[in-house]
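Render this sequence as a predicted structure.
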Amino acid sequence: MANHKSSLKRIRQAEKRKIENHYWAKTARNAVRKVRKMTDAAEAEAAYNKVSALLQRLGRKNIISKNKAANLCSGMMLHINKLGK
């Protein structure tokens, strides 16, 4: 058990951040899956814009790494480009 008030607070903060980070990471994964399932290029393009913004924001906040965010965006765009042909 922690002996200092500050360490008790740190434990509370870490738990709260863990829950919130898990929520946003899971939301992003589901959004990416949804875009990859789409078969209409115009619909996928509109969804891509929102999901891409979400991924970039999560990358800036270090919830996911910036490279992972970029790789996911790139993969979604490749999918959308294949739909357009």
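Summary. Helices lie at 5-37, 41-60, 66-84. The CA atoms of residues 37 and 44 lie 9 Å apart.
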